[in-house]
């Protein structure tokens, strides 16, 4: 079928690369390009010899001319951006210049503010339309599969959805007192920001970790979870018609929260640069450098994740609830691709999203969030490629 350029060589990229190689009918060729080429070469070495032809390249994804040169040389059908959110706009610029389809798993963020808004990327809509190319935004698990689940619920089970609760439970244990499951800088920015939820067309803001609930997760059991802001609330608030409230909850263990509080109190989670021995450093970036590399957690993480959405709404005049979720086992993911479940649950949907664009099923000029496309082929692919989902038509609700 075609050729994909994968940018980034971290935990998520490792899963994307494995999954593309498993799906060689669609991904006949891939190029892994990142800042540190040795990481791309190490991935290639693990998977070389299969049906998918793998090449590697060095690229600074903040340098648009460098990206343009690479894209012109490789001529991919799509660029899969699994670097960091800071690179999104630069990669989109390069895609525009070369008329190449684009996909990512996290919305653009400027380095100096942690806002999690789509406005910068949505501003590219007209230019992508005119260029005749597709940009698919936020195609990991959350955002990503949560949007596909929402579109699926809307299409098959509701006339109108009034409430969505997105529940993200990671019951994995890596044995460290404190570590993050994906890029520490992005993770800590997300959880130390103020919380918010969408209600009656407006944002309601909360203090970080102010709202705590307990939920009895299928296949896991009861866990504490906290309301966070999360980027898909913004797009779902616009794309799910009639929606009144959307909230996002994530589970955290006591040890994680205690460490985070201390780190915050002493200033280590700040993104304001400080001067240290004559050199400017960002405390959070320094913290990242001393924390365990998320990629190293794979072999030691045991337990499961459960991520899903609970919907409330009306069908044929009757009130209805519906819960759809995926359970993923850290050790099984590690055995299959050498990554823990957080990277796995992000990398699999990224491969599927790229496949949707490459096969034409999700191809439309412009900039789109996942819930704007037909969810059915994506849902089928989730079952096929390692993230099977389960449904409950009478779930416990978050009170
Ligand atoms: P990692 O930190 O493990 O990997 C990021 C990779 O990007 C690294 O290989 C890094 O290079 C590379 N990179 C960073 N800056 C540049 C640059 N300027 N040019 C080229 N390459 C660069 O992150 P993850 O794999 O954990 O996460 C990847 C993405 O997935 C992030 O955007 C994250 O927010 C998103 N994500 C989305 C989720 C979802 O469900 N939607 C869940 C989890 C993550 P180097 O190796 O040199 O440092």
Automatic annotation (TrEMBL):
Pfam families: Sacchrp_dh_C, Sacchrp_dh_NADP. Residues 140-386 form the Saccharopine dehydrogenase-like C-terminal domain. Residues 5-136 form the Saccharopine dehydrogenase NADP binding domain. InterPro entries: NAD(P)-bd_dom_sf, Sacchrp_dh-like_C, Sacchrp_dh_NADP-bd. This is Saccharopine dehydrogenase (NAD+, L-lysine forming).
């Amino acid at each position: 079928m075609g050729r994909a350029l994968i940018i980034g060589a971290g935990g998520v990229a490792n899963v994307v690369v494995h999954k593309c190689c498993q799906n060689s009918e669609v991904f006949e060729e891939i190029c892994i390009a990142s800042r540190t080429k040795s990481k791309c070469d190490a991935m290639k070495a693990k998977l070389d010899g299969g049906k998918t032809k793998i090449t590697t390249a060095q690229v600074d994804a903040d340098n648009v001319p460098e990206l343009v040169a690479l894209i012109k040389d490789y001529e991919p059908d799509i660029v899969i951006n699994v670097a960091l959110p800071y690179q999104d706009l630069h990669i989109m610029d390069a895609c525009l210049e070369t008329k190449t389809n684009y996909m990512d798993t996290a919305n653009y963020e400027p380095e100096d503010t942690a806002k999690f808004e789509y406005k910068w990327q949505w501003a590219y809509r007209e230019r992508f339309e005119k260029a005749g190319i597709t940009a698919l935004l936020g195609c990991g698990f959350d955002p990503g599969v949560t949007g596909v689940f929402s579109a699926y619920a809307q299409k098959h089970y509701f006339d109108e959805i009034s409430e969505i609760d997105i529940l993200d439970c990671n019951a994995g244990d890596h044995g460290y007192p404190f570590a993050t499951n994906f890029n520490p800088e992005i993770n800590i920015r997300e959880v130390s920001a103020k919380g918010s939820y969408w209600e009656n067309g407006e944002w309601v803001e909360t203090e970080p970790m102010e709202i705590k609930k307990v939920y009895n997760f299928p296949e896991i059991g009861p866990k504490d979870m906290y309301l966070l802001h999360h980027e898909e609330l913004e797009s779902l608030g616009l794309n799910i018609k009639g929606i009144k409230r959307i909230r996002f909850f994530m589970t955290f263990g006591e040890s994680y929260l205690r460490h985070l509080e201390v780190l915050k109190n002493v200033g280590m989670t700040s993104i304001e640069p400080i001067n240290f021995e004559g050199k400017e450093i960002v405390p959070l970036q320094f913290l990242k450098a001393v924390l365990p590399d998320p990629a190293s957690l794979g072999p030691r993480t045991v337990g499961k994740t459960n991520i899903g959405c609970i919907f409330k709404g009306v069908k044929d005049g009757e009130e209805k609830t519906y819960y759809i979720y995926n359970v993923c086992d850290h050790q099984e993911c590690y055995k299959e691709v050498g990554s823990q479940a957080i990277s796995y649950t992000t990398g699999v949907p990224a491969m599927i999203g790229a496949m949707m664009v490459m096969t034409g099923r999700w191809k439309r000029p412009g900039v789109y969030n996942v819930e704007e496309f037909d969810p059915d082929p994506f849902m089928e692919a989730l079952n096929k490629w390692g993230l099977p989902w389960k449904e409950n038509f009478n779930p416990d609700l978050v009170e």
